[in-house]
Amino acid sequence: MRVAVEDDQSKPEEAATAVTKLINQNHVVAMLGEVSSSRSLAAAPICQANNVPMISPSSTNPRVTQVGDYIFRVCFTDPFQAEVGARIAWEILKVKKVAILSDVRNDYSVGLQTFFRQHFKGFGGEIVAEQSYSEGDSDFRAQLTQIKSANPEAIYVPGYYTEVATIARQARELGISVPLIGGDGWDSPRLWEIGGEALNGCYFSNHYSVDDPSPAVQKFVSDYKKRYNQTPDALAALGYDAARILSDAMKRAGTTRGDKVRDALLGTKDFQGVTGTITINKERNAVKPAVVLKIENGKFNYMTTVKPTGT
Amino acid sequence: MTTFLQQLVNGLSLGSIYALIALGYTMVYGVLRLINFAHGDVYMLGAYVGYFLSRRLRGAEPSLPRALVVMLGAMLACALVGIIIERFAYRPVRRAARLTLLITAIGVSLFIENAAQLVFGPDPKFFPSLAPRADFHVGGVRLTSEQLTVIAVSFLLMVLLRFFILKTRTGKAMRAVSFNLDAAKLMGISTDKIIAITFALGSALAAAAGVLIGMQIPKIDPLMGILYGLKAFVAAVLGGIGNVPGAVIGGLLIGTSEVMVVGYLSSTFRDAIAFGILILVLLLRPQGILGRAQKEKV
Asked: How far apart are CA A151 and CA A99, in angstroms?
């Protein structure tokens, strides 16, 4: 297998351009990506129109795979992840009043916000404040000051680590000491590098934990460290699983023809990935558990695993 | 009430960053009648120089001398960058039409942004803490030492700059160049040198702003200068472009109104407010708050 790589500069419009180029000039037979839901939503219609199977490693917004029958994902979806977030607040922290601070320009963040609100209210909790920011902002004091005046017992921040780390610092500077809760967008060694002690006692849901004792995870972690000299975050693990599921499907299909590979991908069942046992369902989503991590002194400590209900 | 006061403090500390960047815009405009669009990117370079310098000075605990060294180093490096930009990008087209100069400025800005992504990498970097920090409580309002530093340094630099322009020989020459370039030349003023000094000063101020924001929001990236640069430009226009105290007043007003809008309305209006103000100023008082109206010469 040969890999062709394009950079989309984290812009949805660039993602569409990059995918068009990969399909028309590099003649790729399948697409791995994008990371974020906003960019996957920009790229997916192009893959669908060209009958090129696309596997997003980490786009959790439900709309991504609804684009068409060539679009897959190997991660869990936002409704499930938001439920995990609501359970962290309700069952682990045992709080009743939560504020939400979300990234209004990001489909991923808005999705988590909506489903968190729904689940947390369903448990009997109360959302005391909802504020928003835009990706790339670096000053959150205005929003945090408003949140502080609502006296929440925890704050749900479904964003990416670059902003979350800054939010955590500014929250502590403003005297907000309640824990923050987040999703897989938090996962990066840089989260702690930027946020530091401000993040102590915060929780987030994630795809896998490096502390997971299972041999599959430990082998992946040590191989990755040997090659890249750093600890793999969840994006690395998901990217690895996406590539392996694709190659597995191509082997079973015996061809790289788009429609055959798509059918083989649909037949993925109990695949032993690094991020858990993965089954692809009829909606082309991965059915798999999530882990809850607690941040303590720079370490993401494994707390518990939450399995999907129903499906 | 506490919430409102806290928002006011938030706004002032954000506004003083805009004010510092706006000073550079205003100075260059005053002398050359040029909107130096690369100014926001020089601010970004300042933050990066500060970042690399402070990593070089490893070992030492955060201390005041250390912060000072980093700040001065960044200002010096960016002064040099400013001189280079002026010498190689603006001077060759100085006699050309105003539009040529403006387009050159946009070109320089794009060049710096993309070169920085190539050299530094596009991912954000963490700015280490430079000075020992403390939190202050006044009533229910909280203020960090970083916020205080930003406000204090902004005002100090503004006062120094005003002194420099009004009281020194070079400052006088600067005002002469600003008044009439050709006449100043005839009077024996080395205009090239004065323009270079203007760029050096403006860029050094931008670098100071870069380091200060790095201390306050410890996250820097190669595109951080775009929005801050644009808003500082709006601040300069609001205060009256070419006017030094005007730039500071404009910066503080933009910062405060931005925070108030985010706090009490919605964060989606964050960027709209600055540019909304720009449109209003251009419609109602194009010379800005402190600027003097200029009559078109026929």
From this structure: 8
Contact A42, A15 (CB under 8 A): yes
**What ipTM does this complex have?**
0.77
CATH number of B2-129+143-284: 1.10.3470
pLDDT tens string B170-190:
989 988 888 888 888 898 888
* Minimum distance, in Å, between the CA of residue A40 and any CA atom of chain B: 20
Domain borders along chain B are: 2-129+143-284
Q: Return the structure tokens found at A273.
A: 């990935």
Number of domains in chain A: 2
- For β-strands A203-206 and A290-296, DSSP reports them as antiparallel
Supply the pLDDT for residue A123.
92
Which residues lie below 8 Å from residue A138, measured CB to CB, with a gap of 6+?
A166, B213, B217, B219, B224
Distances (CA, A) of A85 to A82, A203, A241, B241: 5, 9, 24, 49
Facing residue for B267 by CB, picked from A143, A148, A173: A143
Contact A9 B142 (CB under 8 A): no
Judge contact between A305 and A86, C-beta under 8 A.
no
A133 to B144: CB separation less than 8 angstroms, yes or no: no
Q: What is the dihedral of CA B37, B41, B43, B46, to 10 degrees?
A: -140
**Which residues in chain A are contacts of B7 at CB distance < 8 A?**
142, 145
> For residue A311, is pLDDT > 50?
no
pLDDT for residue B293 is more than 70: no
pLDDT at A195: 84
B259 contact residues in A (CB cutoff 8 A): 139, 141-142
Q: How far apart are CA B189 and CA B197, in angstroms?
A: 13
